Amino acid sequence: MKQRLLFPRQKVGLVWVGKPVRCSSQEGCSNSRAISHSRDRTNELRAIDGLVTAHSAVGRYERAFDLLEQRLTLAKELQNLREELKSFEFYAQLYKQQGNYLTARNFYERAIILARTLEDSKQEVQLLDQLTKMLQRK
User: Fold this and answer.
1) How many CB atoms lie within 10 A of CB 42?
2) With the CA atoms of 18, 118, 128 and 96 taken in that order, what torsion angle do they form, in degrees rounded to the nearest 10?
3) With helix as H, strand as E and coil as C, how does 64-119 read?
4) 10 Å Cβ neighbour count for 55?
5) Strand partners, 22
6) Is-contact 26 9, C-beta < 8 A?
7) Alpha-carbon gap, residue 43 to 23, rounded angstroms
8) Between 26-57 and 61-77, two packed helices, what is the crossing angle to 10 degrees?
9) Buried b (16+ CB within 10 A) or exposed e, 4-13
10) Which of 11, 22, 23, 136 is deepest in the core (most CB within 10 A)?
């Protein structure tokens, strides 16, 4: 049976993500596409993370928030609570940087709820620590 190379690539901002996938049957190709698509979506989250960090570092908060909205939507589409939690943490950090402590607190609390849902006590403690430090400083 002849093998085919698939290039399930997707443009994320200015970057193309994805790797060639080898498959030898139609069913195998379909499964490979699904797995590859999932990896591409995960890579898209990572690309967005980098862009959010870059935009916020130079004070382009509006663009960073737009990207975070895309990130949260993607995490929800993937039904990935851990990535949703990370999105909420990013939101909290950006609002904190801007001095909007009330909104930052709201996002920290939402992230803490997800950490509890995921039974991730380490993440929960880290978020509670970040929230406490923020509240002590304001």
Assistant:
1) 15
2) 40
3) HHHHHHHHHHHHHHCCCHHHHHHHHHHHHHHHHHCCCHHHHHHHHHHHHHHHHHCC
4) 19
5) 5
6) no
7) 21
8) 150
9) eeeebeeebe
10) 23
Retrieve residue 116's tokens.
Answer: 């509890």
DSSP 25: S
Residue 138 — pLDDT band, cuts 50, 70, 90? low
The CB-side HSE value for 112 (13 A sphere, CA atoms) comes to 15
Question: Is-contact 40 56, C-beta < 8 A?
Answer: no
pLDDT digits (tens, 9 = 90+) for 76-112: 999 999 999 999 999 999 999 999 999 999 999 999 9
- Identify residue 78 by its one-letter amino acid code: L
45 and 71 Cβ atoms separated by less than 8 Å: yes
| Cα gap 22→128, rounded to integer Å | 45
Tokens, residue 51: 């862009």
Which phi and psi angles does 44 have, rounded to 5°? -65, -40
What does pTM read for this prediction? 0.72
5 Cβ contact partners less than 8 Å away, ≥ 6 residues apart: 20, 21, 22
